[in-house]
Amino acid sequence: MIIKKSPAEIEKMAAAGAIHAATMKLVAGQIREGVSTAELDAVAEEHIRSQGAVPSFKGYRGFTGSICASPNAMVVHGIPGPYRLGAGDVISIDIGVTKNGWVADGAVTFPVGPVTPVAGKLLEVTRQSLFDAVQQCRPGNHLGDVSHAVQQTVEGAGLSVVRSLVGHGIGRDMHEDPQIPNYGNAGTGPLLEPGMVLAVEPMTTAGRHMVRMGDDGWAIYSQDGSLAAHFEFTIAVTEDGPRIMNPWHEGEDGL
Q1: What's residue 254's pLDDT?
Q2: DSSP string spanning 129-168?
Q3: Residues of the chain with pLDDT under 50
Q4: Cβ–Cβ contacts within 10 Å for residue 32, how many?
Q5: Are 205 and 227 in contact (CB under 8 A)?
Q6: How far apart are CA 28 and CA 241, in angstroms?
Q7: What order do you get walking across the sheet with 74-76 strand by strand?
Q8: In whole angstroms, what is the distance from residue 58 CA to residue 48 CA?
Q9: Is the N-terminal amide bond of 111 cis, ω within 30° of 0?
Q10: In what order do the strands lie in the sheet containing 228-230?
Q11: Which residues partner with 234 through β-bridges?
């Protein structure tokens, strides 16, 4: 069942989203060669807690980090630890913030210094696919329009959508209905209505779409070892159109 939120509840989610966006920008400022993913985790947790919020991921089903930090061929769910960023890496940072019982979730994949043309294209296209999906999050559209927008952008650029991982509804729980694949047919699926809040998260690879589980039972990698990317917003469907609840992009490229 899709749980719609009232305007007042959406404002509460936006408060969590504002903390999320600020946290992501703080972490972005720390990304450089030699920094460990554990150090990035510490920066994020300190800021989240300083705002009277809690990191949603910490303790979730036994997860030990406050963020997910997933380098290179790791798609998602990387446990922060001793791994140190190297020049030319890409690193996906996924952050969840819970404030007064409401959750915001989002992710960005960052380059570590100059990266290869393949990596640059992967990040640019995956990011664009998220913004294309945002434009479909409006009343009267269908969930399939959101999924199709991601697929069209990613596969149109010769990259792959990870098909076994999905986005999700979000609210008081981090994972609510509906599941949101990053591929599908336009005009299909549930009708989007005001009050729905969606965590839309394109997950892509520069190679094939298949993935494998890592030895720790958390990390998920591209099966062929190709680079992966992950971008995510929490988006409210409103009468006025899509509302990005955690605008980590604001201030970038004039936005």
Answers
A1: 40
A2: HHHHHHTT-STT-BHHHHHHHHHHHHHHTT-EE-SS--EE
A3: 254-255
A4: 11
A5: yes
A6: 28
A7: 74-76, 220-222, 211-213
A8: 12
A9: no
A10: 160-161, 203-205, 228-230
A11: 199
Q: What is the dihedral angle through the alpha carbons of 182, 255, 19, 161, rounded to the nearest 10 degrees?
A: 10
pLDDT at 252: 66
* Helix (H/G/I), strand (E/B), else coil: 39: helix
Enumerate residues 6+ apart whose C-beta is below 8 A from 104.
13, 16, 17, 19, 20, 96, 97, 170, 234, 245, 246
pLDDT (0 to 100) of residue 251: 79
Determine contact, residues 234/199, Cβ cutoff 8 Å. yes
Task: Give dist(CA 57, CA 60) in Å, integer.
Answer: 5
The Cα 154–Cα 93 span in angstroms is: 20
Amino acid at 255: L
pTM over 0.90: yes
The residues with which 236 forms a beta bridge, in sequence order, are 197, 243
Q: How many residues does the chain have?
A: 255
In terms of phi and psi (left: phi > 0; alpha: psi -120 to 50; beta: otherwise), the region of 140 is left
Predicted local confidence at residue 100, as pLDDT? 98
Residue-level pLDDT at 255: 41
- What residue type is assigned to position 80 of the chain? P
